[in-house]
Amino acid sequence: MSRDKQSLTMNAIPLNNSSSTTSAATLTHLRVLESEAIHIMREVAAECKNPVLLFSGGKDSIVMLRLAEKAFRPGRFPFPLMHIDTEHNFPEVIAFRDKRAAELGERLIVRSVQDSIDKGRVKLRRPDESRNVHQTVTLLDAIQEFGFDACFGGARRDEEKARAKERIFSFRDEFGQWDPKNQRPELWDLYNTRVHPGEHMRVFPLSNWTEMDIWQYIAEEKLEVPEIYYAHRRDVVWRGGWLPVSHLVQPKEGEQVKNLMVRFRTVGDMSCTCPVESSAATPEEIIRETAATRITERGATRMDDKTSEVSMELRKREGYF
Length: 321
What we know:
single chain; 321 residues; Rossmann fold; 2 domains; 34% helix; globular
């Protein structure tokens, strides 16, 4: 490692506003997680030639931005932001995405699944199907277009069982594919970042975080998130879960539209992302609600995970987030 790279990785900054001399023994659970994530981000910046941070405007990627601020400010991020847009995202989230990137003054790259459809790279079986699974093609094309060798993602191991198989540094071959049986060992926080041309790493600094940790961090850092994460009234229909009525989801014959107090635990494609009934209107109320739930956020709110013919593990093997 060069002297410049070593200094980028090793130079310490305060983990919070209270003191720069806090010992490891007195760090809170969140500050330990924060420290680990900052170390991972700096390691990528030091070792990889052309990284990118995937930023959707969702809560996990919002936390990733704050961690990047703590890792690299007052300088600019040593990587751009990128969003793979299905064009079926919630408008509130897209507006937040653009606003936050502008506030930070960071470059935001947007690539659209619709463009992949127009080019014939993606073919839909029916016009109303979820576009989530088709993000893989657009993502891999964007990685090739810009020559990215590392992509920061906000995935957490508590989201879904296939994600729990991920390493923090998840190797992808020249086709962007993931082989869970052919991942590199990660001992003593030592990471192997070497890749050949065409290969890349997916890097998950939030691997050891949970949904509860995310909301506790949002509360502690006073982070702004899209308003749909908080309780609000919305028209919904029941299809094995409450789906929000929109231009993409219209009530079918026999379905009854209800106006309920709901919030979203995760945000994605409007055609398959379900809200949950809730009155939680602050991070503190969401923390209490999360502590009591026994259902994972994806298990409760992502219809494509329940109904897709393609498992999450198979999607990831093909190059999904």
